[in-house]
Each structure stands twice: as C-alpha cells, then as structure tokens.
Amino acid sequence: FDQVRREVARRSLEILLKDTRIQPFRIEEVVEQTKKEVEKIMFEEGEKLANEVGVFNLPSADLYTILGRFKFRTSYGQNLVVHTLELTKIGIHIAQEIGADANIVRLGCLFHDIGKVVEGEGSHVKLGVELLNRYNFPEAVVNCVAEHHEDKPFSSIESVIVHIADSISGARPGARYDDFENYVKRLKDMEEIAK
Length: 195
Prior knowledge:
Helix content: 55-70%
Low-confidence stretches: none
Strand order of the largest sheet: 1-2
Distance between the termini: 45 Å
C-alpha cells in the first residue's frame, strides 16, 4: 500500500526486464539504485511544490522529501500535488481578500495533508500535527492542520480558510473519482435544476 515502494518496484522491474539479467544480486543492486533515484525525485518534487506555493525556507531538507511523496499519493483519485497546489492558491486568495495572514494559510494549506504520507498510527491529521510539532512550526500553522477537518474547534480565521479551501478543492466537479452512476445522477440533477 506504500506508493513510493510501488514506484521503486515498478521502475526496478522496468530496468530488469530491459536488462534481462534477472539474478538475486542484480535485483538488489537495481532496487538500491532505484531507491536513490526515487529519493532524489521526491526531494526535487517537494522543493518544486513548496516553491510553486511560495515557500522557500523550510526548517529541514527532510520536509522537501516528505512533500515529494505527494507525487506518488492520491486521495479519492485526486493526486496530492495537484490538490495541494489548488487549495493553496484558493486559500491564499481568500486570505488576501479578507485580510487574514496569508503566510499562515500558505503553510497550513501546504502541510494540511502531510500526515497522509507519513508512517505511523492514527489519522492523517494527528500524524501531520506530530510532524509539524517535531519541526517546531508555529502554533497557528499546526492548528490549521489540526482543524482542517473540524476535528477540533477552529482557533483562528486562518484555520477556517484552510478548511474552506480544502473543501472547495475536494468538492469541485472532476476533482475526485466518481463512479459512473453518481456522475450520471449528478448530471440528471443538474439538468432538473436547469429546467
């Protein structure tokens, strides 16, 4: 169920099948080499994601690699990189429009689903909060992550904005995988409303 391990396996198999030298020593060598390549890709993707939303100085390089795992993770059929970019842009616009702290919203949006790619026991909200606390993020940012699913009462307008942006991004048509019957039902409902 680990998408990163699945990606390492996929890439390793492609290399081994092209090479045709499928021997135990060669397999271990290719898997180790592929792990390093995927780690590098995750760091680059995490850095790219952070930079695209305007975050340039994270407290640790490890956070870029963790964010890079979003490239290989989906939630309800929606890729986490795409979801995070979209909701961060929405959240920042809302914050700027109403005069909230856009930097808190930016970090809250960027890290709201970080717990989905961290190993551990508990919900992604709990895991995300623990990770941010480990890296000494400001309490306002940690609260945005802790409150984005209304697991606890909102403590600030920035938390509300992260929640709203997450809801908008996840609920827009086409954002998440819908089975065919629900899609047809939604179209029929929209047709009835239009009539």
